[in-house]
Amino acid sequence: xxxxxxxxxxxxxxxxxxxxxADLEDMGRVHAQSMxxxxxxxxxxxxxxxxxxxxxxxxLSRGWTTAVxxxxxxxxxxxxxxxxxxVVGLAAxxxxxxxxxxxEALPDGDKxxxxxxxxxxxxxxxxxxxSRLLAACADHARADGAKVLVVWAVRGDESWSxxxxxxxxxxxxxxxxxxxxxxxxxxxxxxxx
Length: 193
Fold this sequence. Notes:
There is one protein chain. The chain is an alpha+beta fold. It has a single domain, classed as Gcn5-related N-acetyltransferase (GNAT) (Aminopeptidase), CATH 3.40.630.30. The protein has 5 helices and 7 strands, in the order βαααβββαβαββ. Strands 1-2-3-4-5-7-6 form a 7-stranded mixed beta sheet. β6 and β7 form a beta hairpin. α1 crosses α3. The longest helix is centred in the N-terminal third of the chain and has 20 residues. The protein is globular, with a radius of gyration of 16 Å.
């Protein structure tokens, strides 16, 4: 797979590039499908109808418009994974709260970067796209001066857990509860850069 140094062994040809406005519709579709799959894995069963209805590809694509067209800072990045020129994955990276790879506070002046969104179309998972996106996020975070990469992942989504582990991230012990169905827990993963 990959590690945070960017060493990759991709399963299929694919690339990661900066997102463009022309990608917005595809990004909404990728985000919606990957989010629903992850939440379903976290619940261990079918999602409530109101959750499935609330996760709209159209609304999610609108939500990406500003982040893609005019990011709030040069340290905010929106990336897409492509296969045969088709967008099959996405990731967003932003400056983050100051914690190390174990969840402890970083010394003053040290920086962290958070992967604020990550998804790969379910039909394109396990083909190296997630690994490529994580490696690209790590490269951007390093270039921006970050010492730590942080990712929140749904507990129970074993596909993402395997990808994060293979990339060298580990759970910090921090978690948060999402109000989905009976509740979905997200765990904080991190790695030193």
